[in-house]
Fold this sequence. Notes:
Layout: H1 3-9, H2 22-30, E1 39-43, H3 49-58, E2 63-68, E3 81-85, H4 91-100, E4 104-109, H5 115-125, E5 129-138, H6 158-169, H7 183-187, E6 188-194, E7 197-202, H8 233-242
Parallel strand pairs: 1-2, 1-4, 2-3, 4-5
Antiparallel strand pairs: 5-7, 6-7
Helix pairs in contact: 1-3, 4-5
Amino acid sequence: MNPLREYFDNNTKNAIHKWMHYFEIYDTFFKKYKNTPVVILEIGVYQGGSLHMWRNYFGKEAKIFAIDINAECKQFEDENTKIFIGSQEDRSFLEQVKSQIPKIDILIDDGGHTMTQQIVSFEVLYSQIRDGGIYLCEDLHTSYWIEYGGGYKKPGSFIEYSKNFIDYLHAWHSSDKRLKVGELTRSMYALHYYDSVLVVEKRKVDPPESKMMGELVIPIDRFPTPARPKENIFKRILRRLFS
Length: 243
């Protein structure tokens, strides 16, 4: 059984509230960090149960940091876990947190789930993720809940905001001045969408490289493109990559 799900099912200590399909997602992306000095930042402490779950899963070497707006959550702090009290939509507060913690391997946003909270947290804290790390934002279904600032196709929801990441990932191939290669293009290796969860794999991304090996059997000028019927497709790719 998934060790995180097993811990959850047998938990009798501090409460943990999770959607059941999250455990498979966690284990898929987190298992490589088990029993290493991984640095974790969790936004949203609630009853403190997930902090115990992460400690059990990652092991004694893990360095765990957490954020919550409720000052009572400070009671769950111990010598191995540091808890910061403040609002995740307060950019100044998040900058202060950044200045007091090392680079992060895993960030889990399980905080207040409003649109502003999720967007501000990403904009401030993504840069704190180490190369090769993970940014995981959960409970994205609130992007469809009006009371959280969401709504289907509503501008400003985290879902609509994060759809731009798909464009940034492909900016290498754009000739439109509105979509240029930037820091997110150079650092978003992969985006994984699940029901209510987005996982961003952060890794240095080099410009994509296209190669062709082997003998040309059919002359390439016999493969026109719909947009430019007389132009060779491979020349077009090369021009996009190096112009």
